[in-house]
Structure formats: structure tokens, C-alpha cells
Amino acid sequence: MTDSEQFEELKEGIREMVILFKTVWDEVEHQFSGLSREEQHRIFSLIAPFITDTFAMAASEGVMEDFAKPSSKRKKRRRV
């Protein structure tokens, strides 16, 4: 893999992380809309390191592809 390919891969990873954090922030704003902005930031600051650690661990174990794959759908059981 060339340096430019590695750089592009790094940029793509960073882009995906930014989108993920933006999504999490949007959800924090939605779920905690009654709280002040400062309190929302505190909640986000508790969640963000967990996300970072989870992805770092997954990347080191080579399972990042598993996050992108949709999980199999569960079959619904009919209640009788």
C-alpha cells in the first residue's frame, strides 16, 4: 500500500468518525433537549470516549468490517 493510499484510508476513517460523533451529538440534543447546552456537552463528553475506545479496540482486533455489516434480521415469533 502506498503512502497516498494509506493517507486516503486515514482520511476516510477520520471522516467516518466525524460523522459518527455528529450523529451522537444530534441524538444527545434530541434526547436531552430540556437540558442546558452545558449539560448536553457533559453528557456527550461521557459518551464520546466510550465510542472512541470501542472503535480503537475493534480496529486493533481487525473487526471494523463487522460494524458496517447489517446484522441478520430476527424472525418474529407469533404469539398464540
Describe the structure.
The protein contains three helices and no strands. It has helices spanning 3-31, 37-61, 64-68. The model has no long low-confidence stretch (mean pLDDT 81). Helix content is 74%, strand content 0%. The chain is mainly alpha-helical.
Supply database-style keywords.
single chain; 0% strand; extended
Structural class assignment: mainly alpha
Low-confidence stretches: none
Strand content: under 5%
The biggest beta sheet reads: none
Count every helix, treating DSSP H or I runs of 4 or more residues as helices: 3
Between the first and last Cα atoms, what is the distance in angstroms?
A: 57 Å
Radius of gyration, whole Å: 18 Å
Order of helices and strands: HHH
Shape: extended
Helix proportion of residues, in percent?
over 70%
Q: How many strands?
A: 0
Average pLDDT rating: 81
The number of domains is 1
